[in-house]
Amino acid sequence: GGKWTYNGPDGEAHWSKHYPYCGGAFQSPIDFQPELLRYDPDLLPIQVYNYNLSSNEQLTLSNNGHSVQLSLPSHMHLSSLRHLYTAAQLHLHWGSPDILAGSEHTVNGRQFAAEMHVVHFNSGKYPNISIAADKSDGLAVLGVFIEVGEFNPAFDRFLKFVKGIRYRDQKVQVPAFNIQDLLPAQLDRYYRYDGSLTTPPCYPSVLWTVFSMPVTISLKQYKALATGLFSSQAQEFDPVPLLGNYRKPQLTDNRVVLVSFQE
Ligand SMILES: NS(=O)(=O)c1c(F)c(F)c(S(=O)(=O)CCO)c(N[C@H]2CCc3ccccc32)c1F
Ligand SMILES: [Zn+2]
């Protein structure tokens, strides 16, 4: 799509000029404030299928100018939801090298260092993600909060290759690995609400599942993300660092956030 950024004249306050949904209702991310939360005992633990990819498969790691993105094969899917959702890609949102705050969703005002999104589309109803992207039941995204702490070997399976995708539109092939190792141990504790893409075109088409348990990566791993990437192309003169690629929390429009846990 057109050019949009996270700051300046094309920043998020201006997105709705070219992408009307960005100024609409049911936008994401949101702040999970205690008074919005309602426990729902019917929320089952998330079940992932075929996330354990074999290492002789290859995945495409790319810099799309807005994030670092890892393509995911179509035999990976989520099952415990009303429809069958097939994986498409995962990407991250992060802060800056000195400000370790870059998650999109926040918990009672607390922003985590980063956030990973695993994007799936409703393959039971739609042939591909582009068709599904603007349908109200089109997408299901898993959100994972990331804190800085212990080194994370699973994240290093792709973070160690970011040197090869420093500039926009660069891609590298990386050996596949068990994508479930990127998720927190507890898949039964999560926030659930209806929202949108957090980037233009901001379609209100996402069933959000954000795990309450964060994962950790080391400071060195975080810095690889926050200092290693540019949103500009390799041949451009003034390189634009890719950092702070998170949208601020949006109005809740009296939406209820269901939680699968009680304490
Ligand atoms: N935070 S988020 O999960 O809402 C989200 C993003 F933050 C994000 F950056 C992207 S993107 O494709 O990398 C770039 C802009 O669409 C997508 N891409 C999705 C949205 C629609 C679409 C269509 C085809 C392929 C991927 C996507 C996304 F769903
Ligand atoms: Zn995202």
Short synopsis of the structure:
The protein is mainly beta and 263 residues long.
Describe this structure in words.
There is one protein chain. It contains four helices and 16 strands. It has helices spanning about 15-20, 130, 155-160, 220-225, and strands spanning about 30, 35-40, 50, 60-65, 70, 75-80, 85-95, 105, 110, 115-120, 140-150, 170-175, 190-195, 205-210, 215, 255-260. Strand 4 (about 60-65) and strand 5 (about 70) form a beta hairpin. The mean pLDDT is about 95. The structure holds the ligand NS(=O)(=O)c1c(F)c(F)c(S(=O)(=O)CCO)c(N[C@H]2CCc3ccccc32)c1F and zinc ion. The ligand NS(=O)(=O)c1c(F)c(F)c(S(=O)(=O)CCO)c(N[C@H]2CCc3ccccc32)c1F binds near residues 64, 66, 119, 133 and 198.
Largest sheet composition: 13 strands, mixed
Question: Strand-and-helix sequence, N→C?
Answer: HEEEEEEEEEEHEHEEEEHE
| Overall average pLDDT | 97
Strand content: 25-35%
Number of helices: 4
Uncertain runs with pLDDT below 50, 5 residues or more? Answer: none
Helix share of residues?
under 10%
